[in-house]
Structures are given as structure tokens and as C-alpha cells.
Amino acid sequence: MERRELEVTAVKGTYLRGLLALPVGLLFLMTGVGNLGWTPLGDPLAFLTCLLALAALAFGINHYYNVHYGRVRLLRSQQLRFEVASLACFGIPMILGTILDFRLDLPISAFDVLFGAGMLVWFHLCVGLRPHHQIVWGALIVVGLVPLWGGFDDRASVGWLPIGVATIVAGLLNHRALVRSFGPTTELHVGP
Amino acid sequence: MLDPDDALALDRLIHEPNRLAILTILSTTQDADFVFLQRALKLTNGNLSSHLTKLEAGGLIELEKSFVGKKPNTRVALTAQGRRRVSTHWEQLDRLKHLSVRPDPAG
Question: What is the complex's ipTM, to 2 decimals?
């Protein structure tokens, strides 16, 4: 095994736990449909109930990964780097995208374009860009650039829908990448 | 007087491929548990346990055994000596690799 390949093992084991993206993607979808009033999720109590269900789902998924794929703590310097990258790659696009959509009123979704671009940068910096990252987040950028967004009154809420779908799809593909690297759960007899 | 060959001497404890892999993975972590290492390296329980025992005896790793819920859990971390020696080992491997590269006969 090459040194570099070994040195990214812990990072892969931490950030390719893609099933954890399912509750996140569902949250994005819930936010969109809730704000648009398409479902009862506009009701705060209903939203809170679903939020608690998603939290339970996330907890269960995390437990599954810990039991079947083990636990690892990255070096503190790496953790800090990833936290800063997350702030830059998620926070800035979200704020900037919202401002641009509101101020410029172009027939595109700057929010979706910048979110997709932010995700590409994050994966490039933190885990290494894989083909499925380029396809999924590139597709989100393309969706954001399609000049049909001017027809939506609430562009921001609609924008959460393709983000939610992309997050779920990317998460499933990340999980597949994890299984390919570390093996399926059936192969392991849990050790001491 | 230092023997010039000492710079190229390989650490026998570390040089075994699975132990080198264990130490290299751990060099990027604060710690990892037994299951993670077993997954990453696709070793059997006994094989991994054997390597970890040797590395601990050599002072390169520390083992901490505990329970998570009702299940036993072993956490593994590099010692300072372990970090230093695995880094040195890779540097020595690089030196050997460069020495083994033959010059172009046409040049």
C-alpha cells in the first residue's frame, strides 16, 4: 500500500459515512416543502416532530457506523481544517447565494449554484474529489443555472429541493465508496 | 564513528507491511479502535491482535481497553516514539527508493 493511500484512510473512514447525509438531505427537503406550504410541515409542531425523527435517524445511523466500521478520531489540526472548510464552503455560499438571489433577481438560483460549488470545493479539500461528487454537485450547479428560476415567487424555498435530493444521492454514493474501501458489514467478525 | 549504512537501516518492528500500515494510519489520528483498523486493513481478529501486541511491547502504541455499552472496545493510539519512528521509517524507505533508481544509460 502506498503511504498516501494509508494516510487518507482515517479521513475516508470519517467523511464517507454517507448514510448520515440522508437525514440532512431530508431536512433540506422538509425545509423547502414546509416553507412552500405544500405539506403540513409548515406547522411548527409538525416540523419539530419530523426534526426529532430525523435526529433519531441520524443517531441510529451513527451507531451503525460505529459498530460496523469502528471509531476514529482525526488529529485535532485536521479537524480544525475541516471545520474551517465547512464554514467557508457551506456558510459563505448560503449567505452569498441568498443575498445574490434577492438583490440581482436573475432567472437562476445563485443559492443552488454556490451550494454546489461549495460542496465541490469542500470534497476537493477534505476527502478528495471523486467522480460521483463531480456529477452530483455539478448537476446541482447546472440546475441552478437553468434560466427558469424567475418564475418562482419563493426561489429560496424551491432551491432547497434540488439541494436535498443532491445531498441524499451524494450520501448514498459516498456510502458505496466507503463499503468499497472498507468492505461490507457481513465480512467482519467484530473484534475485542 | 557512525556507520554510513545506519542511515539506511530499516526498523524491523515497523517494516512488516501490516504493522507499517497500522502505524501509518494511526499517524493521522488521535486514536482509532480495533474495529476501524480491522476494517481498514482487512485483517483477522487474531492477526491484528498479534501485531498490536508486538507494537505495544515495542513502545510504539498504547492500548486502552474499555466497554462501549456492554461491548468491549479497544482504542489504539501512537506514542510519541511511535510517531517519530514511523516517520523516520518512511524517510528511510524514500532514501532507498531514490538510491535504487538507475541513471539513464543514454544520459
Answer: 0.86
